[in-house]
């Protein structure tokens, strides 16, 4: 049995993994795979290059394959119609901030300003006298009672809901009238429904508060469901599965004992497609949707899926890549004719396809890879829209699973989204904060045009971005504009110096703008096209060029990949030894992602960031820029209606250091990186020489000293014994 099989992975998948040379699951895989296989929602926070992709792909592929197999054998369609779901609070028919615990019998909302409600999974229709108990378990505001499926979740605010609130008011159709008396923490409210008389009443701690509502005739034939609405409160419910605290009045029965022919299932929140039809008969309805923030990353993940599933036969899993830059007609054709089980895509193209081509009615897995990036890019609304279209529970009782990953998951946006969409998610948080892997040596070099005046006399230099074309930047002056232009010139030189000093023959180089990338590419070609062979990857390059350039770099046909943040996240280039930040990113999490392109899968990597000591004027084309930068030469500052701003890298450096709670090592402009005593000499791009972790290396170093100490200790004890105890013994 392989190590992966021990974590519950199918032998066919484990075989594919073994072929990649993976012997053991990484930490995140060891924690994540069983959780996803177990059916939970998971937030995976782990360092860059730690193997998060497989941590979610492997279990998803496995469950999708098993589901397909069940469908093929007819098992999945044989969902018992004779057993109704248990009487619990529905996880589908509930407000955004209305949490239902795993037993389904305790509910809570911590929203202070709004009411959030929920309904039971089952209701009753027809006749009989029914009751359930609601115990207030915390301070806060609450209303309990009965509602039909037409009622809003804010119980009592329309004619379909009948509630009794803690302030001692009953409410229906927004009419709040005094009733009974106020109740609060530890009080037990018994909710009674008499379908024979069309009457609703309540007891407080067993005391009958009298009739509250008479249900009008039109509504009497509707199904009624236990309902609760809360504002920063918590309630425990008992539908009769355990003994009630207070006996029901004569003739009333616990609601959960409703006979099957009177029981109605709560279908609110189910997709219209999945209430009474087979689990999988639509070709365009995948089981899993994985969203990635960039085309390149989506392609990479899709090819991982292909790798992992290759030994799974009968049935074969069909995956589909849904990204821009590929003819949408091909994707539509695949959806309509070939069928799809797993979709990997970027938000934009997914959005196009859900307009009628792609159905989410069978979706069981919703994965947001690089989730903080997706949310920061403004896809919150789209994610919520997709989520709304997915059934929260399938007819075979399986819950939608959400998996959310990133190396920088500790973002406010992520926590907010998780609270809203995820169901009791488990955090797998190996470090407890955003962190840089030990395998990444990251250093900064200050670019100080006041100290280093070499920019005054450069014969060949990089073409700068032209932000100072309207400024007076004659050399000899020390104005902020002159120093800013000088920084741009110096950075071109420093990049080359870093490459030469470390004999870099493979590196990824991040620039702030597409124009900066193009200028650096041109400069490399100018000084030595062979020695500094390079390609660019950014949003202005055509899709096929982007793909070809990344391929050329991966296959080592060129030495350098010059890119914007499109390649900051997730891109996995085997054994990449070096990366250079020409400019620090203004988004601190992107620093972690950029430098995380090296030091992956236990290989060592060096990341050098150039940091200007003076503010640098840069392009900043916001929504106000009609062309979004294309042929825009408005060099005025944004405050002055222009498209430029002053970029303060020292401030960004401070922000990054504060966020990571470290001081990043500084090296001098000679680019020499001092050897770390602990690591000894490292070869970037390779695993550490002394195999194993630093801990082992340290242990090996310490072993002779510890041995010596043990020997001395033993000698000291013998001397002590001889001197004192032997004397005493002799005296005795
Ligand atoms: N169990 C394993 N054993 C050996 N190598 C592995 C294992 N799991 C993953 N890898 C390798 O580690 C590298 C990083 O994996 P992956 O791209 O999934 O990282 P990640 O955690 O998603 O990183 P990022 O946060 O940058 O996206 C890949 O080259 C992958 O092939």
From TrEMBL:
Pfam families: DEAD, Helicase_C, SPRY. It is an enzyme of class 3 (hydrolase). Residues 2-30 form the DEAD-box RNA helicase Q domain. The gene is LOC108742284. The lineage of its organism: Eukaryota, Metazoa, Ecdysozoa, Arthropoda, Hexapoda. Belongs to the DEAD box helicase family. DDX1 subfamily. It catalyses: ATP + H2O = ADP + phosphate + H(+). This is ATP-dependent RNA helicase. InterPro entries: B30.2/SPRY (IPR001870), B30.2/SPRY_sf (IPR043136), ConA-like_dom_sf (IPR013320), DEAD/DEAH_box_helicase_dom (IPR011545), Helicase_ATP-bd (IPR014001), Helicase_C-like (IPR001650), P-loop_NTPase (IPR027417), RNA_helicase_DEAD_Q_motif (IPR014014). The keyword Electron transport does not apply. Keywords: ATP-binding, Exonuclease, Helicase, Hydrolase, Nuclease, Nucleotide-binding, RNA-binding.
